[in-house]
Amino acid sequence: MATVEAGNMRAPAWRGGFGRLWSAAVLSSFGDALRTAALPLLAVTLTDEPLLIASVTACGYLPWIVFGLLGGAVADRVDQRRAMWLVDALRGALVAAFAVAVALGHASIGLLILLAFALTTLQTLFDNAATALLPALVDRDALGSANTRLMTGQRIAGGLLGGPVVPLLLAAGAAVPFAADAVTFLVAAALIASLPAAESDRKPRPAGSTLRREIAEGLRTLARDRALRGLCAATALCNIGMGALIATLVVLVTGWLDAGNAGYAAAMTAYTAGSLAGGAVGGRLVARFGRMRMVLVAGTVQTAALLVMGSVRGMVALVAALAVFGFMGMVWNVNTTTLMQQRSPAELLGRVSSAYRTLAVAGAPLGALLGGAVATAWGENTPALLAAAFFALSVTALIPARRPDVPVVAPQDGATTGRGNR
C-alpha cells in the first residue's frame, strides 16, 4: 500500500474539474446547513421530548450502517460523476417535496425522520463516489491541500453563511430553508454533470466477482493497515460522542442556557469560525508535526472543549469551546480523509472509504439516542460530558496508529515519496 509524504501540501489546480467540484460541494453545503439547522428547530416546535428530537438525528445516521458498504462497492463500479449528479438531482426533488409538505402544514416528527433517512441513504453513494473521484481530478500529492480547500469552503458556506441565515429564512416561513436547500441540490447536480469524464484506471473485475466479494475486499484492505484501523476505531468512538452532542445541542443552547434561536445560530457560527481557522493553519501544523500526531492532538483538545461545554453554564464559554472544537475538528477531518485516500489503492478507494465511513459512523445513531436519554434523565448539559468521555477513549485508540506498519514506498502513479506519517 502506497503513501506519500505527510507534509507535502502542493496546491491543486482549479482547472480540470476541481473548481467545479469545489463549487458544487460548497453550494450543497450552504443548502445542507439551511436544512440541518432548520430540522431541529422545526422538531422542537412539534415535540418537547428530547428523545424524539434526537431520533431525527439518529435516523440521519442509520443508512450508513445499512447501506454504507453497498454504496462504496457501487461507487467503484459505476461512473462516479454520473452517480453524483443523479443522486443530487433526486435529493433536490425529495427536499422540494418536503418543503411543500411543510408549507401546507403537514410536517410531523415521522416525516422529519423519513426525510433524514432517505437523504442519508442517497448520501452513502454520493460521498463514497466523491471520495473516489477527487484523486482523479487532482494529483495525489495535492490531496491534502484539495481536501483542506473543499472542507474550508464547505465550512464557510455551511456555517459562516448558511447557519446565521436560517433564522431570517424561518421568519419568512418554515418551508423556506428547505426550498432553498432543494435549489442548491439541483444547481450542484448541474455543476457535477458538467465535469469532464475522467479516464478510469480501474482494473476489470474478475469473472464471477460479486458485490459481496468486492465489499469483503475493501474490508480486508482496511483491516490490513494498522494506521487506518486505529483511525477508524477512534473516529467511531468520536462519532458516538458527536451523535450525542449534535442531537441535543439545540436543547443545550435553548434549554440549559436559555439562549433561544439566536443563541443556537451563534453557537453554530462559532463552530464554523473555528473550523475556518483550522483550515487556514492546519497545513502548516501538519508540515511541522505530521498528520498522525496532529490527529492525536486534535482529539485531546476536543475532549477538553467538550468538558467546558458541559460544565460551564455560560454562553461565552460555550461559544469559545465550540470555536476550539471546530478548529480541531477541521484538523481531524482533513487529515483522516487524506490519509485514507493516500493509503488506499485507486481501484479500491470507494470500498475502503465506505468500510471506513460505515464502521466509523456506526456509533453515531447510538450516540444520538444516548444523548437524548441522558438529557432526559440527568439534565440538558450531560450529553456534552458523555461526548467528552467518548473522545477521551478515541485518543487512547489512536496511540497504536501513530506508527503505521506500512512503510512509504513508491506509489504506482509516480507521486513523490517522503518520510511517511509520524
Q: Which terms summarize this structure?
A:
single chain; mainly alpha; Growth Hormone, Chain: A; 14 helices; disordered C terminus; MFS transporter; MFS_dom
What kind of sheet is the major sheet? Answer: none
Helix/strand order: HHHHHHHHHHHHHH
Please tally the helical runs, counting DSSP H or I stretches of 4 or more residues. 14
Q: Could you say which structural class the secondary elements and strand pairing correspond to?
A: mainly alpha
Q: Superfamily at the CATH H level?
A: MFS general substrate transporter like domains
Gyration radius (Cα, Å) is: 20 Å
The overall average pLDDT, rounded, is 80
The CA-CA distance between the termini, in Å, is 17 Å
Number of strands: 0
Q: Which bin fits the share of residues in helices?
A: over 70%
Poorly predicted parts: 1-8, 405-422
Protein name: MFS transporter
Subcellular location: Cell membrane
Membrane topology: Multi-pass membrane protein
Domain Major facilitator superfamily (MFS) profile: 227-422
